[in-house]
Write a structure and sequence with these properties.
The complex is a heterodimer of chains A (about 325) and B (about 525).
Chain A (H helix, E strand, L loop, with lengths): L19 H4 L1 H31 L5 E4 L3 E4 H28 L5 E4 L7 H18 L5 H14 L1 H6 L22 E3 L16 E6 L9 H7 L1 E5 L9 H4 L6 E5 L11 E3 L4 E3 L6 E3 L5 E4 L8 E2 L1 E3 L5 E3 L17
Antiparallel strand pairs in A: 1-2, 4-5, 5-6, 6-7, 7-12, 8-9, 9-10, 10-11, 13-14
Helix pairs in contact in A: 2-3
Chain B lengths: L2 H16 L2 H8 L2 E2 L6 H21 L8 E3 L11 E3 H11 L4 H28 L8 H23 L4 H15 L5 H9 L8 H31 L13 E6 H26 L5 H4 L15 H12 L5 E3 L2 E3 L1 H29 L15 H21 L1 H8 L3 H40 L1 E8 L5 E6 L3 H8 L22 H15 L7 H9 L1
Antiparallel strand pairs in B: 1-4, 2-3, 5-6, 7-8
Classes of the chains: A alpha+beta (about 325), B mainly alpha (about 525).
Chain lengths: ~325, ~525
């Protein structure tokens, strides 16, 4: 082994190489002026900051090459701050590098292990302390203390119970009921089949008596996509086909993977794409997953029209919308 | 009175009231070794200070509330739009508070730099073996800081409640929900009911500005105290040993350099905040679960996680009516869990493999620890492939590729490329060791050609300096552990399988090109 061979010798710390400022007083004075100049530039930066804050209005734009149009107020504040800080740093480091003594110093390390005697004493003290407490012998104390400590940890868990309600049926329900009107979003107008051209897509919501009652909690479950194809373009089971109306098919817009809005629709391929993780759903095959990490199709809503031709939901969703959870199918 | 005399008086004043003279004298003379790579941790520390300062500024105006308001500020395109008070106040900071936008951008840039510096510092510590005894505890604290940093960053950019950040929260909620059995409960407790509810932003606000910064402060303090107490590691070189530290004293050299460097980091961050727009929330609009912007990307340090989630196979299992979403659990919890646990335990794993329980204060040159370096390259490759997939939509649009191709490329790449990186890196390390050996034995190539009387051309080699020769040969080459499967009497030893594994790993770990010894050199001279 090479370890047994004699290693190449350590030549020791190289001799200190003098800097120009160490030997030439003129160079040292020059370095001092350079450091002072940098601190001076820093001060100018602060002046720029103050001037920008007080005098430059925030609606003036200036053209800076490469960066394009920049807000003068914003740029002045930022550059002033950057200059005032940066040059303090630059000056300090230049000062250290040119004028402060740069002799390397050697400091000895000591092993962290204590002296053998101390170690022995230490271990003995620990053992003695443990023995004096009687923890080893009095197992009743040990066990009851363990149990008490363990139980006391329950109180913070219990006290946090009111962070939220327990999951209830609302977790699996949406505002889509039998006969709920589909309304435009935004606008809250009822929709007729003829409002939707073949090839187009629209986001709709369930009708609320007062649209102001619709909160984000509702949108997070109710958002619905309407897509109109030629009926011949579908490749659906008969029962799924029956859920469409004149080529209009409705899917939950909330991704079955992680709940993002499935907002990208490609007209030529009739694919829906979720921009978060690129799960791709085939509209012609009831939003079957054809690519990406989603494991389930987007839930389809059964739609039809009322007597006047307005689109309504025939039935609620037959499954919870959005990402999976443990008791989803219960 | 001169400055020196005044400072002397201060020192006297302090000591008469604390008796700290002995301690402070030693501290001010404390030696720090000098190397650019030791600045990486400093950058992380300084960005943290910048984060505290700029973050405090932002809290004076930010309203962490999900209460619905109608926007009436100066930004015309959102006039009259319904939004949360949090988003409205973030717009107020951006448009009406002078310097507010600058501070927001400094805060965000500092967060990106903070995470980048932590990762770079971690790589430096890993590749040079600085985590070895006695610094294993500090390594674990570092991994803790990295983990907290990811969480803190995510919470931070979630606060403005814009369309992009709300989408991030939605994804976080899906991950929480994916926990078997308790997922829905955890989600209901976190959000105070169904998503998004009205309590989440105020809750993560207090976590972001109080709880986690407190944890950071505590951990950073311990981290630095340990660096101080255990003294800094140093690179090998002439005069540098396991028993000493060579460098410059704290006062004045290090105070000036480190203090100056803080201002430089702050200055650069301010410059970025001034000229480089980051997270322009006014362009995204307020969050609503029914909308999304294309090209939704998390901040860079979350990109690998997003990339993993994107490439996960679409697997869910159903039994007795219960759902387990492997497509979320594997990339979102299981793989990150394994990665971070493995990272935290690595110092112990390595010392188990080498059997080396001694203190180490001299750093390794990465080539002299081929297995460790290869393992690092392998992990980096894994992260890089997943990070690329985290940006697959942007890459697809920028380079005119199909997203499906990138996804499949990274799905295969994430399995194939890391082992490949391991093999290549290990070979490279051994080749570099061989090159070192050549250099010490035969000197450096001068580029001068000599024509011999016989007509042969040879290149003149020049011996390298004794300092260089020492640097190239001062490392240790530990032999592999010898753990026989049977004992002296031919009986199988307990834990034979574990020992076999350990022997194998140890053998792979000890693979090296023998370094040049003084004997080798003598032989050449005589030759």
């Amino acid at each position: 082994m090479s370890n047994q061979l004699e290693p190449i010798k350590d030549p020791g710390l190289p001799a200190h190489v003098h800097r120009k400022t160490d030997t030439d007083p003129k160079a040292a004075d020059r370095a001092e002026r350079q450091v002072a100049a940098m601190f001076g530039i820093s001060a100018l930066g602060t002046v720029l900051l103050v001037v920008s804050y007080v005098f430059i209005p925030d609606d003036i734009f200036v053209f800076i090459p490469v960066m394009g149009n920049q807000n003068a107020h914003q740029l002045g504040l930022g550059m002033g701050m950057a200059i005032s800080l940066f040059f303090i740093g630059l000056g300090a480091i230049h000062w250290a590098k040119t004028l402060m003594p740069d002799h390397e110093v050697v400091m000895q390390r000591h092993e962290f292990r204590s002296a053998e005697e101390d170690r022995k004493d230490f271990v003995a003290t620990v053992k003695e302390g443990a023995a004096n407490s009687g923890l080893g012998r009095r197992s009743l104390i040990k066990r009851s203390l363990g149990a008490a400590l363990g139980l006391s940890a329950l109180s913070p868990v219990l006290l946090l119970r009111d962070l939220g309600p327990l999951p209830g049926p609302e977790q699996k329900m949406t505002n889509w009921k039998s006969g709920t009107y589909l309304v435009t979003d935004p606008g809250d107008r009822r929709i007729k089949a003829s409002d939707l051209e073949v090839g187009s897509v629209a986001q709709v919501m369930p009708e609320f008596a007062n649209p102001k009652d619709r909160h984000l909690d509702d949108i997070a479950k109710d958002a619905l996509l309407l897509i109109r194809l030629r009926p011949s373009e579908f490749n659906l089971d008969p029962d799924r086909l029956a859920m469409t109306h004149e080529g209009i098919i409705a899917f939950s817009k909330i991704c079955s993977h992680m709940g993002c809005a499935v907002a990208l629709y490609e007209q030529t391929t009739k694919h829906l794409l979720c921009p978060c993780h690129q799960s791709t759903f085939d509209v012609t095959r009831a939003a079957k997953v054809i690519f990406g990490p989603a494991a389930r199709p987007l839930p389809q809503l059964d739609i039809t029209v009322d007597g006047e031709g307005y689109l309504i939901a025939r039935k609620p969703f037959s499954e919870p919308v959005g990402p999976s959870f443990w008791g989803r199918e219960k | 009175m001169t400055v020196e005399a005044k400072l002397g008086q201060v020192a006297n004043y302090v000591d008469e009231r604390t008796g700290a003279a002995a301690f402070l004298k030693k501290s001010l003379k404390k030696v720090f070794p000098d190397h650019w790579s030791f600045l990486l941790g400093e950058v992380a520390l300084y960005s943290f200070v910048i984060l505290l300062l700029s973050g405090t500024f932002l809290t004076f105006w930010f309203d962490p509330s999900m209460r619905e308001v109608v926007y009436e500020g100066s930004y015309q395109p959102l006039e009259g739009v319904k939004m949360s008070a949090a988003y409205a106040s973030a717009l107020h900071i951006s448009f009406e508070v002078r310097g507010g936008l600058l501070m927001r951008q400094i805060h965000h840039w500092a967060a990106l730099i903070f995470m980048a510096a932590i990762v770079a510092h971690l790589l430096r510590v890993f590749f040079t073996g600085a985590f070895r005894k006695p610094r294993e505890g500090n390594w674990i604290i570092g991994i803790g800081l990295l983990t907290l940093g990811i969480v803190e960053g995510f919470l931070g950019y979630s606060l403005p409640d814009d369309l992009l950040s709300g989408t991030g929260i939605r994804i976080a909620e899906a991950i929480i929900q994916a926990f078997p059995v308790v997922g829905s409960y955890l989600s209901y407790f976190a959000f105070g009911g169904v998503f998004p509810g009205e309590v989440f932003i105020p809750r993560i606000y207090i976590v972001h500005v109080l709880l986690l910064p407190g944890a950071f402060l505590a951990l950073i303090t311990v981290h630095l105290m340990l660096v101080w107490y255990q003294k800094h590691t140093q690179y090998p070189g002439p005069g540098r040993t396991e028993k000493n530290v060579v460098g410059y004293p704290l006062m004045p050299m290090y105070m000036a350099k480190a203090g100056g460097f803080f201002f430089i980091v702050f200055g650069v961050t301010a410059f970025l905040g001034a000229v480089a727009s980051i997270n322009p929330i006014w362009l995204y609009g307020p969050y609503t679960p029914g909308q999304i912007s294309a090209g939704s990307q998390p901040d860079w340090y979350m990109g690998w996680l997003d990339g993993l989630v994107r490439m996960a196979p679409p697997i869910e299992t159903y039994f007795f009516g219960y759902t387990i979403s492997w497509n979320i659990l594997i990339p979102g919890l299981i793989i990150p869990g394994i990665l971070f646990t493995g990272m935290a335990l690595y110092p112990f794993i390595e010392s188990w493999i080498t059997g080396d329980k001694r203190e180490h204060h001299l750093l390794d040159r990465p080539r002299n620890a081929p297995n460790r370096t290869a393992l690092g390259a392998m992990s980096l490759t894994f992260m890089l492939v997943t990070l690329i997939n985290g940006g697959n939509d942007l890459i697809a649009t920028h380079f005119d590729l199909s997203i499906n191709q990138i996804m499949w490329g990274t799905r295969i790449g994430v399995l194939v490329l890391p082992p490949l990186a391991f093999i290549i890196t290990k070979r490279l390390c051994l080749s570099l060791q061989r090159a070192d050996r050549e250099l010490v034995l035969h000197g450096r190539e001068t580029g001068r050609l000599l024509r011999m009387p016989s007509g042969e051309f040879v290149e003149v080699h020049e011996p390298i300096s004794p300092e260089k020769a020492y640097i190239l040969t001062s490392h240790e080459q530990l032999p592999a552990l010898d753990l026989p499967a049977v004992d002296a009497r031919g009986v199988k030893r307990a834990g034979a399988l574990k020992n076999k594994l350990r022997s194998r790993l140890s053998k792979a770990n000890a693979e090296s090109v023998p370094k040049v010894s003084a004997d080798d050199l003598k032989q050449i001279e005589n030759h």
